[in-house]
Amino acid sequence: MLELQNCLNEFTKMHDEFIRDWNQAMSSGDTSSVERMSEDYYVAFFNSGNEKPIIFTKQEAINGMEQSVRHFLGASKRFENRVIRLRDNKNAVVFYEQLIVKDGEVLARLFTIENWRLINEKWMVIRETEEPVN
Prior knowledge:
The model has no long low-confidence stretch (mean pLDDT 93). The termini are far apart. The longest helix is centred in the first third of the chain and has 27 residues, at 2-28. Strand 1 (37-45) and strand 2 form a beta hairpin. This protein has a six-stranded mixed beta sheet with strand order 2-1-6-5-4-3. By secondary structure, the protein is of the alpha+beta class. Helices cover 31% and strands 48% of the residues.
């Protein structure tokens, strides 16, 4: 149990750094520090209702992320109501509400679920699910 708690503490510290890196990317436009995806990573983006999700590959997601950061340059990302759960000492899931805020105005809100895996001693996102909050 202590080993799992240590793993959770280390993962949480890494994810806190990931959040800081996101805010740096939002102000600089450089997304390289948040490109922590496994080779077979994908993201499923749900629009509304019971529409099927749009699936993006790693490269498509990186391209979209770069475009989004350029579009929202100068805004900040807030990661609210974050919950971290370890499946085991090599797999974690993070749930949160993601807000993009600029000049005090919320420009976008998304529910996000990230699935992380420890690969070669480094935490990598293996898949992600996003859904806008209206």
